[in-house]
Amino acid sequence: MRVGFIGLGSQGAPMARRIVEGGYPTTLWARRRATLDPFADTTAKVAESPAGLAAASDLVCLCVVGDADVNELVDGELLAAMKPGGVIVVHSTVHPNTCRELAKKAATKGVSVIDAPVSGGAPAASEGRLMVMVGGDADVVERCRPVFATYADPIVHLGELGSGQTTKLLNNLLFTAHLGAAASALSLAGALGVDPDRLTEVVSRSSGNSFALNALGGIGGLDRLAGVAGTLLQKDVRLVVDLADRAGVSGGAVLEAADAALARMGHPR
């Protein structure tokens, strides 16, 4: 399978490198040419345009930031250049409907779409242990699984197209809520005379532990994390709220906690 990869950011770059090292003929394209420099020592080819990448690929992986980026690429020259039987994989975290609308357009070209958002960050990608949450036709997912296996373990097929995105958004909603709870606990610790770092040391080995608590300790607090991920978490919580509104259900306590965390980070929903 010939693989094309677009989106060589902090997470996409190690994913692409694992694909190349896995022996797959790989073509790359990037708006910022500097992001291609780290691949100069590999067998990866560089396309001059998204169309060139699409024409040279059976599987095109998109790991760009958001919905607008995905739509801009696909509605431009990428889809038009793909051959029947090709597959587009959306690794970005976007609205499930973005993937469904993309699938409708792609179907007219005989191209399949699956959504496969990831979790774990650059270290997990480099070590081949990303979590991949996949939605889409089972046969298409199985065709892509060996490529995913170069950078991911586990690879979880969750159901129909869009289910991977929904799962990732729910994960990020819960993470945001956990951030708010952890930050509040650390602040309360200081007010009660307990060093927040020592509290983290204890709780990280106790029943109150969470990934969010350790993330805050490692990055230097909620304010610091807000500068790194506040906008992205705000985007993801907004997408979950849209899904809940469309389904006529309430976000409940987890949404309330996430909203409190976003407000504290200066990125209110």
General description of the model:
- The longest helix has 29 residues.
- Helix 3 packs parallel to helix 4.
- This protein has 11 helices and 9 strands.
- The termini are far apart.
- Strand 5, helix 4 and strand 6 form a beta-alpha-beta unit.
- The protein is an alpha/beta fold.
- The protein is globular and about 65 Å long.
- The strands form 2 sheets. A 6-stranded parallel sheet has the order 3-2-1-4-5-6, with helices on both faces. It has a 3-stranded mixed sheet with strand order 7-8-9.
- 43% of the residues are buried.
- The chain is 54% helix and 14% strand.
| Global structural class | alpha/beta
Q: Quick one: overall form?
A: globular
Q: In angstroms, what separates the terminal alpha carbons?
A: 41 Å
Proportion in helices? 40-55%
Radius of gyration: 20 Å
Average pLDDT metric: 95
Order of helices and strands: EHEEHEHEHEEHEHEHHHHH
Give the strand order of the largest sheet, numbering strands 1, 2, ... along the chain.
3-2-1-4-5-6
Total strands: 9
Task: Please summarize the sheet with the most strands.
Answer: 6 strands, parallel
- Strand share of the residues? 5-15%
Helix segment tally: 11
Would you identify the regions where 5 or more consecutive residues have pLDDT less than 50? none
What labels describe this entry?
alpha/beta; globular
List the topology elements.
Elements: E1 3-6, H1 12-21, E2 26-29, E3 45-46, H2 50-55, E4 59-62, H3 67-81, E5 87-90, H4 96-107, E6 112-115, E7 118-119, H5 121-126, E8 130-135, H6 138-148, E9 152-159, H7 163-191, H8 196-203, H9 211-219, H10 222-247, H11 252-264
Parallel strand pairs: 1-2, 1-4, 2-3, 4-5, 5-6, 8-9
Antiparallel strand pairs: 7-8
Helix pairs in contact: 3-4, 7-8, 7-9, 7-10, 7-11, 10-11
